[in-house]
Amino acid sequence: MHALFTGRLLPKAQVAQMTDTGKFGYGLGIFPVQVPCVPGGVVWGHDGAVFGYSAESSVRRTGSGRPPWAPTPGCSPTTVS
Description:
The protein is an alpha+beta fold. It has two helices and four strands; from the N terminus they run ααββββ.
């Protein structure tokens, strides 16, 4: 995720397409999540779950903050609508 948002993985034009949420609320393979305890309040990423386990990897659009992360009490993510 860090390489994606810092331009090391894809050109900025392609990242712009990935983060264009349009009318559906998510981009191409990633989606925004509101997290009040991070600067800017929004991270971009993707999650997954299987057999009772789940994980999420998200970063701010600056490329900073390299999770996977688990929300703590008072810092619960909510999907951006």
